[in-house]
From TrEMBL:
Gene3D superfamilies hit by this protein: F1F0 ATP synthase subunit C (1.20.20.10)
UniProt keyword Cell inner membrane present: no
Membrane topology of this protein: Multi-pass membrane protein
Alphabetical keyword list: ATP synthesis, Cell membrane, CF(0), Hydrogen ion transport, Hydrolase, Ion transport, Lipid-binding, Membrane, Transmembrane, Transmembrane helix, Transport
Organism name: Rubrivivax albus
A single Gene Ontology CC term: proton-transporting ATP synthase complex
Protein name in the entry: ATP synthase F(0) sector subunit c
Transmembrane segment boundaries: 6-28, 49-71
NCBIfam families: ATP_synt_c (TIGR01260), PRK06876.1 (NF005363)
InterPro entries: ATP_synth_csu_bac/chlpt, ATP_synth_F0_csu_DDCD_BS, ATP_synth_F0_csu_sf, ATPase_proteolipid_c-like_dom, F/V-ATP_Csub_sf
GO process annotations (BP): proton motive force-driven ATP synthesis
Superkingdom, natural source: Bacteria
Length: 78
């Protein structure tokens, strides 16, 4: 069972990175689109965008930390 651990860790980190990058990209494109349509909402939306980018990156960093923890400590070793 532990021979699949590097594959699982790679998937945790890789898929987390892909998801985070896609989320930040879509969020940024929608922010630019919304601020082009209504420039007066640019500042209130900017704080929300930065908050959401932090949440998206936080999820990726947590997945990376758990993956590296499994890779080094290997709690599933028999």
């Amino acid at each position: 069972m532990s021979e699949y651990l590097p594959l699982a860790v790679g998937h945790m980190i890789g898929l987390g990175a892909v998801g985070s990058c896609l989320g930040v990209g879509f969020l940024a494109s929608k922010y630019v689109e919304a601020s082009a349509r209504q420039p007066e909402l640019m500042e209130p939306l900017q704080t929300k965008v930065f908050l959401l980018v932090g949440v998206l990156d936080g999820a990726f960093i947590i997945a990376t930390g758990i993956g590296l923890w499994f890779a080094t400590a290997n709690p599933f070793r028999g």
